[in-house]
Design goal:
Strand order of the largest sheet: 1-2
Radius of gyration: 17 Å
Shape: globular
Number of helices: 6
Helix content: 40-55%
Order of helices and strands: EHHEHEHHEH
Length: about 170
């Protein structure tokens, strides 16, 4: 399978645009809102190219907007040329996500550090995931094929996802 990761496909371009503007590549900043659709279009094009070449694709991105509607999410995969779409979601505690972003220490994360979170709090990453009632992420869990614990080892997570792909 081809791994198509949103950051791998688009980060260098986003950072070049930010450098040209003389600002941090903070993808959550209002000036970069329009880049979201362009970044996902790049991911879709690379995924579609691989599918047309006969390779299965694992597309990796937050997909926070798309995850709210599994039917639309499946249709998105089909629009790329997939004949079968297996939806996987990784759950990760907000504190662990913040810790990982802080450890990652990429330039694009630095601008997020002081950004207020939902409810006014801030954390090391300034992250505030889209959430629904009770602060839970808005995910159409009924339409997800596998929900995996993102705090477990990558090997364990990959095994769990592979089981779901094989079963689907």
């Amino acid at each position: 399978m081809a791994l198509v990761d949103l950051d791998s496909v688009t980060t260098a371009l986003v950072e070049a645009v930010a450098a040209e503007l003389g600002v941090a590549a903070d993808l959550d900043a209002p000036r970069f809102v329009a880049l979201r659709d362009a970044r996902y279009a790049c991911l879709a094009a690379v995924a579609a190219d691989n599918l047309q070449a006969g390779r299965d694709v694992v597309a990796v991105a937050p997909f926070t907007t798309e995850a709210a509607d599994a039917v639309a999410w499946r249709a998105l995969g089909a629009s790329w040329g997939a004949t079968r779409v297996v939806l996987c979601w990784l759950d990760l505690d907000a504190d662990e996500a913040t810790r990982r972003v802080a450890n990652r220490s990429l330039p694009r994360d630095l601008a997020k550090a002081a950004r207020p979170r939902a409810g006014g709090e801030t954390d090391a990453a300034g992250a505030a995931p889209a959430s629904g009632p009770g602060g839970r992420s808005v995910v159409d869990r009924a339409g997800i094929d596998v929900v995996a614990d993102g705090s477990l080892s990558p090997d364990h997570t990959c095994a769990r996802v592979r089981e779901a792909v094989d079963a689907a």
